[in-house]
Design goal:
alpha+beta, Phosphatase 2c, domain 1, five-stranded antiparallel sheet, 22 helices, extended
Length: 661
């Protein structure tokens, strides 16, 4: 064990010594450069040794290189220096200045002429500039512009065989796909990036891609895989002394444990990440970490620490603004002190002249001075008292505002949890709706226009099959949104129970059974919850179509004529009548169109006068377009609905199904 530890220490100190030797060698090249061009190149190389762990020194080195390159009109050195400055600004969170530097670098190279333009070095330099510009556009959420620049960079790197450059570009495109929720495309790009980095032995570049892979797995709640990616990234960044990726890996580990609700572990990693960010002045990362740490303490019910961390988050976010204010205040104080001294000198001169010229009025002046001093003292006392009261009031107001901010964030998070829950309910509801493949297998040509008013819907379409009989239900449950969705789930359950469990195969008897189940279970206190709709049965063996309809009539279009098929004027639930539903048969010619729909489309307000669309207009639209292909009919119906609705709110769920018989 002692031998192993000794060997590791020797390797560690050898690496440190080797890195220091490289830095010293570059400084020697800067100082001993025979030309300004060599000096610029050495300064630009030296930048990278300082940027990962001493950003202030790196900034000064890049500025020195830029000034000298501009002076000697050395475009390559100018582009390198601008790229370095842009990188420094980028990690300090100043996107605007970073983009200006990157664009300047690209412009310097694009304006280059001569033999250098054909060199591999020139192409690699231009590729770096395009990649940097894309990174800033991505941070500003201008994804299309960002990807265009990354693609430009890829084209250059492929021509030069630069695997490391290609790896970075594919990694960046992966982050764009991730931010736009295209996770499969993101994973595909990250895997390409990792493969290229492995082929190029780019261990220093691996952490950033591993972090991105970990974030996707974290968002998919695959926490074990996510933690493995983050821990690998953390270990690699530490070995390479890459503090930027070290900070990101620590903060992401904090996020992962927060999502796992292991808040004590999340606090541990956030605090480690904050320590690195503070040391390197990574303002943007630091601001996020303080905000996240505040939420972890809040979850642990340590409200005092939560408030303190949120206060640090706000102060970090406003740090640049505050530093400018301090500078202005110091300038004003200096000007004030200078002016006060001038006034004091003039006052002394004036008093001397008065004493010399008006000795006889000395007593009067002294009396006036004493009275004035007393009045001035009184005024100062009043002013100070008022200032103290105002300061105390401002402090109380500030505390209240901080509490309001925290309360707002809590409400915002609660709202997100509610919306996430409803979205999950949507996923459940959509699994119960008739699946696209199942409908295509059992129906002829058809289309479905389904537009829920809210995230979840009271309208639903459901299908099942028993032997040669295929059943399709198109229904409008009581209500919409969450209440309507609950009713739709209940109604689907009773329909499935009737056909699949009880063996009831006639559509009218299915509706009779579902009505009884609804009345027995949810209408004990007089509620009239249920649904309007149609249950259709297509018998493949006899080629007959039967149906039962509650407060909803199917529409048949054949030979250029529209026919309203019969229906029962009562709902599936408590209504004015409790007689049994009738069974009807569809008499249709091949090629005819059968339309089943709910009332949402016809009831939509819109148009130039903000009135209802109404069934007459809908039927005319169906009749006009019934001979078109089914996908064209769906597109026309959808476009017409959106144009009619305009800026008005959608009033109800919309469901229309068209079937070519």
């Amino acid at each position: 064990m002692r031998t192993l530890i000794s060997a590791l220490l020797v390797i560690y100190f050898s690496c440190c010594y080797s890195q220091q030797q490289k830095i010293d060698s570059l400084w020697n090249k800067v100082n001993a450069a025979n030309s300004d061009t060599q000096k610029v190149n050495s300064l630009n190389k030296l930048f990278f040794f300082f940027n990962v762990n001493n950003s202030d020194s790196a900034f000064k080195i890049a500025e020195q290189a830029l000034q000298l390159a501009v002076k000697i009109k050395y475009s390559k050195g100018e582009a390198d220096a601008n790229n370095n400055l842009g990188t420094n600004y980028f990690y300090k969170g100043n996107n605007t200045r970073a983009l200006m530097c990157y664009l300047s670098a690209a412009k310097s190279l694009e304006n280059e002429s001569g033999a250098y333009m054909k060199s591999v070095e020139y192409k690699k330099q231009l590729s770096v500039s395009y990649n940097n510009i894309g990174t800033i556009y991505q941070r500003q959420k201008l994804y299309e512009q960002a990807e265009n620049y990354f693609r430009k960079s890829i084209a250059i790197d492929e021509s030069t065989g630069d695997k490391i450059g290609l790896a970075h570009c594919y990694n960046n495109i992966g982050t764009i796909k991730e931010e736009t929720n295209k996770y499969d495309e993101a994973i595909k790009n990250y895997e390409i990036s990792i493969k290229l980095k492995q082929e190029a032995y780019d261990t220093a570049g691996m952490p950033s891609t591993l972090i991105n892979m970990g974030v996707i797995r974290m968002n998919q709640n695959k926490f074990k895989e996510s933690e493995e990616y983050f821990e690998r990234a953390l270990a690699m960044s530490k070995r390479a002394n890459n503090m930027q990726d070290e900070a990101l890996a620590l903060i992401n580990l904090g996020d992962m444990f927060y999502l796992k609700k292991d808040y004590s572990q999340s606090v541990l990693y956030y605090e480690k990440g904050i320590e690195v960010c503070k040391k390197q002045k990574y303002t943007q990362f630091l601001s996020y970490a303080y905000n996240s740490l505040s939420l972890s303490f809040y979850r642990m019910k340590d409200f005092e620490k939560a408030y303190d961390c949120y206060d640090l988050y706000v102060r970090t976010k406003d740090s640049l603004y505050n530093s400018e204010n301090v500078k202005i205040i110091h300038e004003l104080e200096a000007k004030y002190e200078s002016g006060a001294k001038e006034k004091e000198i003039k006052l002394l001169i004036s008093e001397k002249e008065i004493r010399d010229l008006e000795l006889t009025r000395k007593k009067i002046i002294i009396y006036v001075f004493i009275v004035g001093l007393v009045l001035l003292t009184l005024l100062v006392f009043i002013a100070l008292n008022a200032y103290r009261q105002k300061r105390n009031a401002n402090k109380e107001l500030d505390i209240k505002n901080r509490k309001i901010e925290i309360a707002y964030r809590i409400i915002e998070e609660k709202q997100k949890e509610i919306v996430d829950s409803i979205n999950y309910a949507k996923r459940i509801q959509y699994t119960l709706l008739a699946h696209k493949d199942f409908l295509q297998k059992n129906l002829n040509e058809h289309f479905i226009l389904f537009k829920p008013k809210d995230i979840v819907s009271g309208d639903f379409y459901w299908a099942t099959k028993q032997g040669d009989k295929f059943y399709l239900a198109v229904c409008d449950s009581t209500g919409h949104g969450v209440p309507g969705a609950f009713m739709s789930l209940l109604n689907i359950g009773f329909l499935s129970e009737a056909i699949n469990e009880k063996g009831i195969y006639k559509p009218n008897e299915v509706l009779n059974y579902v009505r009884k189940r609804l009345v027995d279970n949810i209408s004990n206190e007089g509620q009239k919850d249920g649904f309007d709709g149609i249950v259709l049965c297509i018998d493949k063996n006899t080629n007959t179509i039967t149906y039962a309809a509650a407060h909803n009539n199917p529409v048949l279009v054949k030979a250029g004529n529209i026919t309203h098929l019969p229906f029962n004027k009562m709902p599936v639930g408590i209504g004015e009548s409790d007689k049994e539903f009738d069974l009807y048969t569809v008499e249709a010619e091949p090629g005819s169109m059968l339309y089943l729909y709910t009332d949402g489309y016809a009831d939509q307000f819109g148009g130039p006068k903000g009135k209802k669309y109404k069934y007459k207009q809908l039927e005319e639209l169906l009749l006009t377009n019934h001979q078109l292909a089914l996908n064209q009919q769906q597109g026309i119906l959808n476009q017409n609905f959106e144009e009619w609705k305009g800026n008005l709110e959608q009033v109800d769920d919309v469901l229309i199904i068209g079937i070519r018989l």
